[in-house]
Design brief:
The chain has nine helices and 19 strands. It is of the alpha+beta class. The chain starts with a strand and ends with a strand. Pfam families: DUF4880 (PF16220), FecR (PF04773).
Protein backbone atom coordinates (compact mmCIF):
# COMPACT_ATOMS: atom_id res chain seq x y z
CA UNK A 1 0.00 0.00 0.00
CA UNK A 2 1.33 3.42 -0.88
CA UNK A 3 1.34 6.52 1.27
CA UNK A 4 -0.25 9.53 -0.41
CA UNK A 5 0.05 13.22 0.37
CA UNK A 6 -1.40 16.32 -1.28
CA UNK A 7 0.20 19.74 -1.33
CA UNK A 8 -1.24 23.00 -2.68
CA UNK A 9 1.29 25.58 -3.88
CA UNK A 10 0.92 29.29 -4.38
CA UNK A 11 3.34 31.28 -6.49
CA UNK A 12 5.01 32.70 -3.39
CA UNK A 13 5.51 29.21 -2.00
CA UNK A 14 8.16 28.16 -4.52
CA UNK A 15 11.18 29.37 -2.54
CA UNK A 16 13.65 26.71 -1.32
CA UNK A 17 13.13 27.81 2.30
CA UNK A 18 9.38 27.24 2.11
CA UNK A 19 9.76 23.92 0.31
CA UNK A 20 12.26 22.62 2.85
CA UNK A 21 10.31 23.70 5.91
CA UNK A 22 6.98 22.47 4.57
CA UNK A 23 8.53 19.11 3.84
CA UNK A 24 10.23 18.55 7.14
CA UNK A 25 8.67 20.75 9.82
CA UNK A 26 7.61 17.70 11.81
CA UNK A 27 11.09 16.19 11.84
CA UNK A 28 13.59 19.03 12.27
CA UNK A 29 13.84 22.02 14.57
CA UNK A 30 13.89 25.16 12.43
CA UNK A 31 16.05 28.11 13.42
CA UNK A 32 13.78 30.93 14.60
CA UNK A 33 16.67 33.35 14.91
CA UNK A 34 17.29 32.70 18.60
CA UNK A 35 19.73 29.80 18.12
CA UNK A 36 23.43 30.37 17.51
CA UNK A 37 25.42 28.27 14.98
CA UNK A 38 26.90 26.33 17.92
CA UNK A 39 23.38 25.66 19.24
CA UNK A 40 22.31 24.38 15.83
CA UNK A 41 25.37 22.13 15.54
CA UNK A 42 24.78 20.70 19.01
CA UNK A 43 21.13 20.06 18.23
CA UNK A 44 21.97 18.30 14.95
CA UNK A 45 24.56 16.14 16.72
CA UNK A 46 21.99 15.14 19.31
CA UNK A 47 19.42 14.33 16.60
CA UNK A 48 21.92 12.26 14.60
CA UNK A 49 22.84 10.21 17.67
CA UNK A 50 19.18 9.70 18.43
CA UNK A 51 18.56 8.43 14.89
CA UNK A 52 21.47 6.01 15.23
CA UNK A 53 19.84 4.59 18.36
CA UNK A 54 16.47 4.32 16.62
CA UNK A 55 17.99 2.47 13.66
CA UNK A 56 19.75 0.09 16.04
CA UNK A 57 16.52 -0.59 17.94
CA UNK A 58 14.14 -0.99 14.98
CA UNK A 59 15.98 -1.43 11.65
CA UNK A 60 12.90 -2.96 9.99
CA UNK A 61 10.37 -0.25 10.90
CA UNK A 62 9.13 1.24 7.57
CA UNK A 63 7.58 4.33 9.18
CA UNK A 64 10.80 5.06 11.00
CA UNK A 65 12.69 4.70 7.71
CA UNK A 66 10.48 7.32 6.06
CA UNK A 67 10.94 9.74 8.96
CA UNK A 68 14.70 9.19 8.91
CA UNK A 69 14.83 9.84 5.15
CA UNK A 70 13.05 13.15 5.64
CA UNK A 71 15.36 14.14 8.47
CA UNK A 72 18.63 13.29 6.71
CA UNK A 73 17.60 15.11 3.51
CA UNK A 74 16.46 18.28 5.28
CA UNK A 75 19.78 19.96 4.46
CA UNK A 76 23.43 19.26 3.70
CA UNK A 77 24.21 19.97 7.35
CA UNK A 78 21.88 17.14 8.42
CA UNK A 79 23.54 14.71 6.00
CA UNK A 80 27.06 15.74 7.06
CA UNK A 81 26.23 15.45 10.75
CA UNK A 82 24.79 11.97 10.16
CA UNK A 83 27.93 10.84 8.33
CA UNK A 84 30.16 12.38 11.02
CA UNK A 85 28.21 10.63 13.78
CA UNK A 86 28.51 7.24 12.06
CA UNK A 87 32.25 7.71 11.51
CA UNK A 88 32.69 8.71 15.15
CA UNK A 89 30.99 5.64 16.56
CA UNK A 90 32.80 3.37 14.09
CA UNK A 91 36.14 4.84 15.16
CA UNK A 92 35.54 4.25 18.87
CA UNK A 93 34.05 0.81 18.28
CA UNK A 94 30.78 1.42 20.10
CA UNK A 95 27.28 2.73 19.62
CA UNK A 96 25.40 5.10 21.91
CA UNK A 97 23.43 3.20 24.50
CA UNK A 98 19.96 2.04 23.58
CA UNK A 99 17.04 3.41 25.55
CA UNK A 100 16.46 0.15 27.42
CA UNK A 101 19.83 -0.42 29.11
CA UNK A 102 20.69 -3.88 30.45
CA UNK A 103 20.80 -4.19 34.22
CA UNK A 104 24.18 -4.35 35.96
CA UNK A 105 23.80 -7.97 37.09
CA UNK A 106 23.29 -9.09 33.48
CA UNK A 107 26.54 -7.51 32.30
CA UNK A 108 29.34 -10.01 31.59
CA UNK A 109 32.83 -8.44 31.23
CA UNK A 110 34.02 -11.38 29.17
CA UNK A 111 31.65 -10.42 26.39
CA UNK A 112 32.93 -6.87 25.88
CA UNK A 113 34.78 -7.78 22.70
CA UNK A 114 31.69 -9.38 21.24
CA UNK A 115 29.57 -6.39 22.15
CA UNK A 116 32.07 -4.03 20.54
CA UNK A 117 32.06 -6.09 17.37
CA UNK A 118 28.28 -6.06 17.31
CA UNK A 119 28.29 -2.32 17.87
CA UNK A 120 30.66 -1.75 14.95
CA UNK A 121 28.54 -4.03 12.76
CA UNK A 122 25.39 -2.20 13.78
CA UNK A 123 26.89 1.18 12.91
CA UNK A 124 28.21 -0.14 9.60
CA UNK A 125 24.71 -1.44 8.91
CA UNK A 126 23.31 2.00 9.70
CA UNK A 127 25.58 3.55 7.06
CA UNK A 128 24.51 0.89 4.56
CA UNK A 129 20.89 1.58 5.38
CA UNK A 130 21.46 5.24 4.63
CA UNK A 131 22.66 4.30 1.16
CA UNK A 132 19.79 1.86 0.66
CA UNK A 133 17.07 4.14 2.00
CA UNK A 134 18.16 7.35 0.29
CA UNK A 135 19.24 6.46 -3.25
CA UNK A 136 20.43 9.45 -5.20
CA UNK A 137 20.91 11.53 -2.05
CA UNK A 138 22.46 14.38 -4.01
CA UNK A 139 19.48 14.36 -6.37
CA UNK A 140 17.12 14.58 -3.42
CA UNK A 141 19.06 17.54 -2.04
CA UNK A 142 18.70 19.31 -5.41
CA UNK A 143 14.95 18.77 -5.49
CA UNK A 144 12.05 20.94 -4.39
CA UNK A 145 9.87 17.89 -3.79
CA UNK A 146 10.59 14.18 -3.56
CA UNK A 147 8.93 10.97 -2.45
CA UNK A 148 10.20 8.00 -0.50
CA UNK A 149 9.62 4.28 -0.91
CA UNK A 150 5.96 3.42 -1.67
CA UNK A 151 4.98 7.08 -1.21
CA UNK A 152 3.01 9.09 -3.78
CA UNK A 153 2.52 12.83 -3.58
CA UNK A 154 0.08 15.18 -5.32
CA UNK A 155 1.10 18.81 -5.88
CA UNK A 156 -1.15 21.64 -7.03
CA UNK A 157 1.00 24.33 -8.65
CA UNK A 158 0.35 28.09 -8.64
CA UNK A 159 -0.81 28.02 -12.30
CA UNK A 160 -3.51 25.42 -11.59
CA UNK A 161 -1.51 22.49 -12.97
CA UNK A 162 -1.18 19.32 -10.92
CA UNK A 163 1.75 16.93 -10.60
CA UNK A 164 1.52 13.49 -9.01
CA UNK A 165 4.87 12.00 -8.01
CA UNK A 166 5.37 8.24 -8.02
CA UNK A 167 7.44 6.60 -5.26
CA UNK A 168 11.18 7.28 -5.37
CA UNK A 169 10.78 10.42 -7.49
CA UNK A 170 12.16 13.96 -7.31
CA UNK A 171 11.42 17.23 -9.10
CA UNK A 172 12.87 20.75 -9.20
CA UNK A 173 10.75 23.69 -10.37
CA UNK A 174 11.56 27.05 -11.97
CA UNK A 175 8.43 29.00 -12.90
CA UNK A 176 9.00 32.36 -14.63
CA UNK A 177 6.96 35.01 -16.42
CA UNK A 178 7.32 33.44 -19.87
CA UNK A 179 8.03 29.78 -19.16
CA UNK A 180 7.05 27.11 -16.64
CA UNK A 181 10.07 24.84 -16.29
CA UNK A 182 10.31 21.65 -14.26
CA UNK A 183 13.01 18.97 -14.05
CA UNK A 184 12.15 15.36 -13.29
CA UNK A 185 15.38 14.41 -11.54
CA UNK A 186 14.45 10.77 -10.99
CA UNK A 187 11.45 8.46 -10.98
CA UNK A 188 8.06 9.06 -12.54
CA UNK A 189 5.37 11.73 -12.53
CA UNK A 190 1.91 12.31 -13.98
CA UNK A 191 1.20 15.85 -15.18
CA UNK A 192 -2.16 17.54 -15.77
CA UNK A 193 -1.14 20.93 -17.16
CA UNK A 194 -3.29 24.07 -17.13
CA UNK A 195 -3.58 25.74 -20.54
CA UNK A 196 -1.53 28.96 -20.82
CA UNK A 197 -0.34 29.90 -24.34
CA UNK A 198 1.80 32.72 -22.94
CA UNK A 199 3.80 30.35 -20.73
CA UNK A 200 4.71 26.96 -22.20
CA UNK A 201 5.13 24.14 -19.69
CA UNK A 202 8.49 22.43 -20.22
CA UNK A 203 9.70 19.25 -18.52
CA UNK A 204 13.35 18.21 -18.69
CA UNK A 205 13.61 14.48 -17.96
CA UNK A 206 16.79 12.49 -18.39
CA UNK A 207 18.07 14.47 -21.37
CA UNK A 208 14.67 14.76 -23.06
CA UNK A 209 12.82 18.09 -23.24
CA UNK A 210 9.02 17.88 -23.34
CA UNK A 211 6.98 21.00 -24.12
CA UNK A 212 3.22 21.41 -23.76
CA UNK A 213 0.58 24.12 -23.50
CA UNK A 214 -2.22 22.22 -21.77
CA UNK A 215 -2.38 18.44 -21.58
CA UNK A 216 -2.19 15.30 -19.42
CA UNK A 217 0.78 12.98 -19.71
CA UNK A 218 3.11 10.66 -17.80
CA UNK A 219 6.92 10.80 -17.76
CA UNK A 220 9.22 8.09 -16.43
CA UNK A 221 13.02 8.21 -16.12
CA UNK A 222 15.13 5.12 -15.47
CA UNK A 223 18.80 4.26 -15.85
CA UNK A 224 18.41 3.49 -19.56
CA UNK A 225 15.75 5.76 -21.01
CA UNK A 226 13.00 8.35 -20.68
CA UNK A 227 9.41 7.41 -21.52
CA UNK A 228 6.56 9.83 -22.28
CA UNK A 229 2.95 8.61 -22.52
CA UNK A 230 0.26 11.05 -23.68
CA UNK A 231 -3.30 10.81 -22.39
CA UNK A 232 -4.74 14.13 -23.59
CA UNK A 233 -3.66 17.13 -25.67
CA UNK A 234 -0.42 17.52 -27.63
CA UNK A 235 3.26 17.45 -26.65
CA UNK A 236 6.53 17.88 -28.48
CA UNK A 237 9.71 16.12 -27.38
CA UNK A 238 13.34 16.46 -28.40
CA UNK A 239 16.73 15.57 -26.91
CA UNK A 240 17.98 18.47 -24.79
CA UNK A 241 20.22 20.82 -26.76
CA UNK A 242 19.23 19.41 -30.16
CA UNK A 243 17.82 21.49 -33.03
CA UNK A 244 14.09 21.69 -33.76
CA UNK A 245 14.51 19.21 -36.62
CA UNK A 246 14.96 16.46 -34.02
CA UNK A 247 11.57 17.24 -32.48
CA UNK A 248 8.79 14.64 -32.31
CA UNK A 249 5.11 15.40 -31.78
CA UNK A 250 2.87 13.06 -29.78
CA UNK A 251 -0.90 12.68 -30.01
CA UNK A 252 -3.18 10.99 -27.43
CA UNK A 253 -2.66 7.25 -27.11
CA UNK A 254 0.99 7.46 -28.16
CA UNK A 255 4.17 6.80 -26.20
CA UNK A 256 7.74 7.91 -26.91
CA UNK A 257 10.89 6.24 -25.58
CA UNK A 258 14.19 8.12 -25.63
CA UNK A 259 17.27 5.86 -25.45
CA UNK A 260 19.99 7.98 -23.86
CA UNK A 261 22.92 5.86 -25.05
CA UNK A 262 21.76 5.73 -28.67
CA UNK A 263 20.24 9.25 -28.56
CA UNK A 264 17.31 7.70 -30.40
CA UNK A 265 13.54 8.26 -30.06
CA UNK A 266 10.90 5.67 -30.94
CA UNK A 267 7.11 6.04 -30.79
CA UNK A 268 4.37 3.45 -30.40
CA UNK A 269 0.69 3.06 -29.63
CA UNK A 270 -0.25 2.62 -25.97
CA UNK A 271 -3.35 1.49 -24.10
CA UNK A 272 -4.89 4.60 -22.55
CA UNK A 273 -5.73 2.62 -19.38
CA UNK A 274 -2.02 2.00 -18.78
CA UNK A 275 -1.04 5.69 -18.68
CA UNK A 276 -0.28 6.58 -15.09
CA UNK A 277 -1.74 3.25 -13.92
CA UNK A 278 0.79 3.23 -11.06
CA UNK A 279 -1.54 5.71 -9.35
CA UNK A 280 -3.95 2.78 -8.94
CA UNK A 281 -1.18 0.36 -7.91
CA UNK A 282 -0.68 -1.29 -11.31
CA UNK A 283 2.49 -1.45 -13.38
CA UNK A 284 1.92 -1.95 -17.12
CA UNK A 285 5.01 -2.86 -19.15
CA UNK A 286 5.40 -3.69 -22.83
CA UNK A 287 8.58 -5.30 -24.17
CA UNK A 288 10.63 -4.02 -21.23
CA UNK A 289 13.78 -5.62 -19.83
CA UNK A 290 13.46 -7.43 -16.50
CA UNK A 291 16.19 -5.19 -15.05
CA UNK A 292 14.23 -2.03 -15.92
CA UNK A 293 11.05 -3.45 -14.37
CA UNK A 294 12.96 -4.44 -11.21
CA UNK A 295 14.24 -0.86 -11.06
CA UNK A 296 10.65 0.41 -11.07
CA UNK A 297 9.40 -2.13 -8.51
CA UNK A 298 12.34 -1.16 -6.26
CA UNK A 299 10.62 2.19 -5.63
CA UNK A 300 7.73 0.34 -3.98
CA UNK A 301 9.79 -2.19 -2.02
CA UNK A 302 11.27 -1.38 1.42
CA UNK A 303 14.13 -3.85 0.87
CA UNK A 304 17.14 -3.44 -1.38
CA UNK A 305 16.78 -5.65 -4.50
CA UNK A 306 19.82 -7.14 -6.24
CA UNK A 307 19.73 -8.71 -9.71
CA UNK A 308 23.33 -9.85 -10.39
CA UNK A 309 22.47 -12.01 -13.44
CA UNK A 310 22.78 -9.83 -16.59
CA UNK A 311 21.30 -12.54 -18.82
CA UNK A 312 18.16 -12.75 -16.70
CA UNK A 313 18.03 -8.98 -16.45
CA UNK A 314 18.14 -8.58 -20.24
CA UNK A 315 15.08 -10.78 -20.86
CA UNK A 316 12.06 -8.82 -22.12
CA UNK A 317 8.58 -9.01 -20.64
CA UNK A 318 5.07 -7.72 -21.25
CA UNK A 319 2.52 -7.76 -18.46
CA UNK A 320 0.68 -6.10 -15.59
CA UNK A 321 2.15 -6.30 -12.08
CA UNK A 322 0.65 -5.50 -8.68
CA UNK A 323 2.67 -2.73 -7.06
CA UNK A 324 0.84 -3.12 -3.75
CA UNK A 325 2.51 -6.55 -3.36
CA UNK A 326 6.09 -5.99 -4.60
CA UNK A 327 7.46 -9.41 -3.56
CA UNK A 328 4.68 -11.14 -5.50
CA UNK A 329 5.27 -8.80 -8.44
CA UNK A 330 8.97 -9.73 -8.49
CA UNK A 331 8.11 -13.42 -8.42
CA UNK A 332 5.63 -13.10 -11.28
CA UNK A 333 8.21 -11.12 -13.24
CA UNK A 334 11.11 -13.58 -13.09
CA UNK A 335 9.44 -16.97 -12.57
CA UNK A 336 8.73 -17.58 -16.31
CA UNK A 337 12.49 -17.34 -16.91
CA UNK A 338 13.51 -19.63 -14.06
CA UNK A 339 14.28 -16.78 -11.69
CA UNK A 340 13.73 -16.94 -7.94
CA UNK A 341 13.41 -14.14 -5.40
CA UNK A 342 15.42 -14.98 -2.29
CA UNK A 343 14.74 -13.17 0.98
CA UNK A 344 18.15 -12.58 2.52
CA UNK A 345 16.73 -10.42 5.30
CA UNK A 346 13.88 -8.01 5.87
CA UNK A 347 15.85 -5.36 3.99
CA UNK A 348 17.50 -7.41 1.20
CA UNK A 349 16.29 -9.52 -1.76
CA UNK A 350 18.44 -11.31 -4.33
CA UNK A 351 17.06 -12.50 -7.68
CA UNK A 352 18.85 -15.38 -9.41
CA UNK A 353 18.27 -18.53 -11.43
CA UNK A 354 20.22 -20.78 -9.06
Amino acid sequence: MTNERSVHLKKADLSPVYLQSERDADYAQLDDGTMTPDDNAAELSKEATDWLIRIREAPDDPEMRLHFERWVTTSRDHRREWEKTCRLWLSVGALPAARDKPSAHNFKPGRRGGRASLAIAACAMAICLLVAWVPGLLIVLQSDYHTGTAETRSLELEDGSTVTLAPGSAIAMDFGQSRRSLRLLQGEAYFDVAHDPARPFVVDAGGLEIEVLGTAFDVMVDSESTRVSLERGLVTASPSGKEASAERRLTPGKALVFDRDAQDMTTSDIDAASIGAWRQGRLHVVNATISSVVERIQRYHPAWISLPDPVLGSQRVTGIYDLTAPDEALGALVDPYGGKVRRISSFARVISRF
